[in-house]
Amino acid sequence: MRVKLPVLLAASFLIARSIYADGNITGFVFNKSTSEPLGFATVALVNPETGVPLSIGTTTDENGAFIIHNAPSGKYIIRFSMMGNIPQEREITVANSNISLGKIVLAEDSKLLQEVVVTGQKSQVTVNPEHRVFNVSSNIATSGTFADELLASVPSVNVNSDGEISLRGNSNVLVWINGKEMGMTADNRAQLLRQIPAESIESIEVMNNPSSKHSTEGTAGIINIRLKEDQRRGYFGSAEANIDTRSNANVNFNINVNEGKFETFAGLGLKSHHNPGGVTSRRTYDEGYHLNSDGDNKRHENSAFLRLGTNYRPDKSNTLYLSAIGTIGHKWGDITTTHLCNLPGQWASNVNDSHESGDTRGANIMLGYKHLFGQEHYIDMNASYNVWQGPNDNRFYESETWDDGSTSSVWQSQHQDVRISNWEAELDYSYKFLPWLSLETGYKGNYNHENSPASYSAGPTADNLVPLNDLYNRFKYDTDISAFYVNFSGEYEKLTFSAGLRGEAWQIRTRSLGYGQSDSDVPEFKKNDFALFPSASIGWTFFDRNELQLNYSRRIHRPYGPQLNTFENISDPSEVHLGNPLIQPEYSNAVELSYVHNWNSHTLSVSGYLRSNTDMISHISFLAPMASTPDVNTMYYGHANVGNMRNTGIEVISRNTLFSRLTLTTTVNLYNSHLKAWSADYPLHADFYAVRGNRQNRFVWDARCMASVRLPWDLTLQATGRYNSRSVTAQGTLEPDWDVEAGLRKDIKAWGISLLCKDIFNSKETRNILYGNGYTQSIAKWTGGRTLRLAVTYNFGKTHSHDHDPHNHIDTGGYGEDHHH
To answer: Number of H helices and number of E strands within the chain?
Structure first.
């Protein structure tokens, strides 16, 4: 008995452990009425004795699937909830095996939306090791803004005064709308994003290391803007109107009508914008001379944004979807720039008064079909056509004064017809053929065509302009990209993994035609290329709510149209713009190790990363002799491969709810940027001109903090501060910048009123320092400035009837929705 008793006790202990051992909880959440999967539904565990929600939870993916890794042993209530649906609860026991709950359906809310006051909000940022999702509705700054301003609120994303977007300090980032490029190029992206009302945007997703399923363009990663779409039965929508102290005004309207087998949505945005701006340049030559420039501008724009679409579901397995986006607008502005110079043989002053005007017309139409063979087994195919057109005119009066007091003046005019079209075709197949392994494979084609002629004229008066045929240019640019990918992913116990390979073949064709020339007169520049892009990730869930993931991806930056155009654009009196047809693609290899931990009211994400770029493409400026007067140097501006860049850093994102009313979302990005010394031979006047840059090694950091406070009387106060330190460019540095904004929102049933002050301290400015061959230059740009904006929003709608009981508030610590009625 003395021997048997310890053995029996040990056996009992082992049996108890086997009965109540940790396990994974999986399942799928679907809409009861439509049988469609519900993405981003909240799944949380609740203490069955106290009814208090625990800090163990997750959200469903876009296919309605969820997994709670390594749930502690014990008995729980698992709760499923989503805005506009009745929550569901089940009792479960976590024992010695994984739990598969199968299909869970959520019925829709029966109440009139006017009768429901939503006092909670989605988490500002949802983080996991694969991507970050910025929830637009949680940001007061979205009221009355557009997509370009909204991107500036996303952690680790920066938007400068020119509308250039960068991610973790890298401006080569791919921007999508609903997972597609929508015809956006580096030339028109800023303009298109200024047309999309923030009221039409559901969320913004940031992927630093996307899998091989996604496009490899953009060495910094992908930013995906998801527009609003809702699957609840009935009708519902919102209307918004706003005005600010700069006489900017916007009106936006969105509606969903979901009845029977159709889900239809529409949106309309109208805006009138008036924005001041300015630029200051100080160029100092090694010989002691200078060229200083000061410019002021005020630009105006009236535009309309329209969005339409419908999903037709004849049965549970098939979906046919059609959508269209259109934008039309007119812009105009006045710019005055004064140049002062003491270079020998050059004018002493040059005053340039210009008036610009133009029209924009853009459209996207997409048709697609999706078939479900079963759970986690589907095929999805779609095709879309994009077009971007519009004439642009710039008429300016240039007055020169020389050292001897003599003067001269000239009127000049520039006209350009922008004509860009694009086809996209995509086919995706996904199948989970083993309980722990899924296959994804597919094809993506992207076919772009640009034909944008530009003409110039000049004369002594505005009414007597003569065409300058020597300056006429018609640039034709075609690029075709075909891609095939295969990706395997799965999970086994506490491990998740994926590995994929993407092959891309592309062809670039360009022609730069002069006046009277046809295609037969100018040989076509043609280049074909092919590359493979692997991706891989492995994740581990350990010690309850801890996630660790290692990612690798290879990406590319291809040169685009104007960067390759060999035409010398001399419309700017301070520099000549000249393309470089010899630019090679830039490649990057990135490795990132991410750790995420969630508590009841806190989320912490820490990512260490290494990104190495070879043949980095960058804009460069250099002094070189003019073709017409070789004894006179002028400034040339273009693009070239400037060598290798390596960024090594750490990014920390935290979300903390304090005292149940204050939520702080903080992002800090610290990295070392190392650029090797470089030399580039730039094609110039049928020869090559050597341009060089020095080695640079600099510690860079940026920080962002958003504080949201729930005040009495249903008031919410939100303030955001941003700071970017000095960073490295190919020929110098980008100087520090910072700004602060704050807003107040009041909800009154279906109405919302917000007051926002942008750039409170008038501090937002972009400033570059350039060090070139024989000169140093400082360039500062600003736009907008302090602005006070008032916005009013109204939500309306009605969903189908289902009786239900009130349900409790769930805080998932950074995952999914936090809400209660």
So the answer is: 4, 46
